[in-house]
Amino acid sequence: MRNIQPSTLRIGRRYRPGRLNGPYDALVIGSGIGGLTTAALLAELGWRVAVLEQHYTAGGATHSYERAGYEWDVGVHYLGDMGARTTVRRMMDFLTQGQLDWAPMDAHYDRFFIGDRVYDAVAGRAEFRDNLVAHFPREAQAIDRYLQLLGEVSRGMRTFTLDRTLPPWAAAVAGPLLRRRLPPSFDRTTWEVLSELTDDPELIAVLTGQWGDLGLPPKRSSFVIQALIAKHYLHGGFYPVGGAWRIADTILPRIRATGGEVFTYARVEQVLVQEGRACGVRMADGNEIAARCVISDAGAINTFARLLPAEVAGQHGYDRLIEGVKPSIGHLGVYIGLQGTAEEFRLPKTNYWIYPGNDYDAALDRFLADPDGPFPAVYISFPSAKDPDFARRHPGKATIEIVAPAPYETFAPWAGRTWGQRGEDYQALKQRYGERLLEHLYDKVPQVRGRIDYWEVSTPLSMKWFCGWERGELYGLDHDPSRMRQRWLRPRTKVPGLWLTGQDIMSCGVSGAMMGGLAAATAIAGVRRMAPVMKQVFG
To answer: What is the pTM of this model?
Structure first.
């Protein structure tokens, strides 16, 4: 590790009061994919929207950064549903105006190392099924039923989304009927559902080998979210050509087309409420910006515990409601630079998931009790191998990223200090964790040992500092079954003029947050006004 310097890769326009171009129809707090999606869709309706991002670059967890001559993506390691005209692909193509291409990964896009055993996730429904049956020939019926459940959950999610976007009068009438149409799996853990299909813990471990993509192992996670992620990748993994930063970069023109802008270094201190209605925001510099409505992509806890005046939050019961949800786990990230190309190092286009054994929940419990013990999960991504444009931007170089769960409490003693100035003891702690994670890399990719030119470590405090998540959480709220029952987690809040967008109202990840952005825009503008845009998107 070396002394770190700020990134030179930045998207958006730096905030200055004199650069505001109001009056604005809407203000969006946060430039994650949920906020950008809502802003772009409203802009397509002619709205003038200002997106206010406290980070130095736009994109939220989809942003990239450059340091020491290397480039890394902080949150987008791969997406599914990009190889065909799926709902997710059509939505992404509309937002980016077709200016963003997606490169397929290897057909064996995920590799699971479970103890001393190795399994692959294979692209294609039939291929995925046949590969599993080859490993578990006695479990063909369970595997077939699992694939059926993925389809049932996907169809049920349409009903769930409709329920969340209905106006109050319609929700009161149709909501109970819609909820009765949801499959039983919507209220169960992943383990509860899968243990009824099979009593083979190894098969359950393979089926849930992507649990790091939602932040909870099977006995804790909502089966709905696990199923959505599994179906999302059923036809393989894809990577944005040019890097994750291109997502925000290609969406910004839509927002700017109607006079809007995405501002960076734009920290919002408070949502302004007059006569019971949200009417604008107060910035960290004291400047106040007015708008017809305020849309928060800052997460439910941030919105109601920090941004909304306490008396307003209490009046509507949000102080009690947020006590019923909890933030997801934080993470460690190791960002590695190599002198030499991905081809020279024989880096794969396959993600590696490394687990000590097939009991993911027990492994996580042991780690939370003793963070110096074995990691419950280690994820390794090879972005320079996945991105066909990387060699053009960074000739003769390659990058690797390692991600592992990490409790916020381990790093909380340094939370009040400025990024880059947290002291030698903090740096030493990061060094120790980084070296431990590097050993996992060397075990699976031994040819890089002794060849690393640069590496650095992020912690939950990095996520807190740059993305504003209070406990450095990676996936917003925990996606457990109880979170799916929280009917107040919807675009429309109890405060007129204040709306929510992003992953907290739908599901996690880029596609989940993007669908949250679509749901928010539809709820704000109304189905009738949004219909022409949806016809343009989906044909």
So the answer is: 0.95
